[in-house]
Amino acid sequence: MKVIIDPDKCCGYGECVATAPGLFEIGDDNRAHLLRDGELSGPDAELARDASYSCPVEAIDIAE
Question: What global pTM score does this model have?
Fold first, then answer.
């Protein structure tokens, strides 16, 4: 699976970081950024899904 963050939607609430701190960070631009490139699988994929569901502005999309 691939994680796509829409920077136009992201407001920097940080729910993704709270859910999956090993996968996301809030950058200097106050927007979420993925810490890993490429495809995610296993536990990382599950954490990314949870982070997507927790985003209050739906800025994180999952492409299976």
Answer: 0.91
